[in-house]
């Protein structure tokens, strides 16, 4: 069995509280009786895109297994490239990557738009993605990025999702994709996009309650809700299984 630990939105900002929320999730993984095969972090790694924040991200996620990271709207391409082990050709924005771990392929897209909170993929990015997805793959194939393209039925968050999703869906439709993995909305979510499972990891830094949940009375984000993660379990010939966990201890 191949195990993916899917983390998202640690928003490290130099504060102890942000660091400890990420650290509690990492400590939880470290206590497993077998290591996960890969850790994937789907963006908003740093809160302000500062070099010192990326140094903290690198230090907190220094694990003995591959750690894949991609940018969110709070990240900034140049310091991210300088501070983290991303494998993306070129310089600056966008930071697209293809990473193979064992037989699994991860296509990591940069859906961020510099200076904006919403997501968007340019025509050039979609062309690049189509070329990558045309390559034959034998193992599980994951497409991961920060901004989900589906509305969460949330009046604020839905302004900041991936815009202009239909050309993106056209590139993904019919491809042998095991699942699409995202973050950004600070909620564990299961839905579909372009005919594929779309699985969103909870926010480590905070949770965004739905408008009708009690915590919504206190604002957009609930910083008291525990951090969480998704564990994606891949077994030969069987459907993908995802387990969501909230981490209540450090
Ligand atoms: Fe975030
Ligand atoms: Fe975000």
TrEMBL record:
It comes from the Bacteria. The keyword Magnesium does not apply. InterPro entries: Calcineurin-like_PHP (IPR004843), CNP_phosphodiesterase-III (IPR050884), Metallo-depent_PP-like (IPR029052). Residues 3-187 form the Calcineurin-like phosphoesterase domain. The keyword GTP-binding does not apply. Coiled coil: none annotated. Keywords: Hydrolase, Iron, Metal-binding. PANTHER family: CYCLIC NUCLEOTIDE PHOSPHODIESTERASE CBUA0032-RELATED, PHOSPHOHYDROLASE. Belongs to the cyclic nucleotide phosphodiesterase class-III family. This is Metallophosphoesterase. It comes from Kribbella koreensis.
């Amino acid at each position: 069995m191949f195990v993916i630990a899917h983390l998202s939105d640690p928003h490290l900002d130099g504060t102890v509280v942000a660091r400890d929320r990420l650290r509690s999730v990492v400590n939880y993984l470290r206590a497993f009786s077998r290591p996960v095969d890969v850790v994937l972090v789907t963006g908003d790694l740093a809160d302000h895109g500062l070099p010192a924040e990326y140094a903290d991200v690198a230090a907190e996620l220094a694990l003995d297994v591959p750690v894949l990271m991609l940018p969110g709207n709070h990240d900034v391409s140049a310091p991210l490239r300088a501070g983290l082990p991303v494998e993306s050709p070129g310089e600056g924005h966008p930071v697209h990557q293809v990473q193979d771990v064992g037989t699994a392929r991860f296509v990591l897209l940069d859906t961020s738009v510099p200076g904006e909170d919403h997501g968007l993929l340019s025509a050039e990015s979609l062309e690049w993605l189509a070329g990558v997805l045309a390559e034959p793959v034998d193992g599980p194939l994951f497409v991961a990025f920060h901004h989900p393209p589906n509305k969460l039925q949330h009046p604020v968050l839905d302004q900041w999702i991936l815009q202009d999703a239909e050309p993106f869906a056209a590139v993904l439709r019919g491809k042998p994709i095991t699942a699409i993995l995202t973050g950004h909305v600070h909620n564990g979510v299961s839905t579909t996009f372009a005919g594929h499972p779309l699985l969103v990891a909870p926010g480590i830094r905070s949770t965004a309650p739905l408008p009708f949940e009690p915590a919504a009375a206190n604002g957009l984000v609930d910083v008291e809700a525990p951090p969480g993660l998704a564990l994606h379990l891949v077994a030969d010939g069987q459907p993908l299984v995802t387990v969501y966990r909230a981490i209540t201890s450090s």
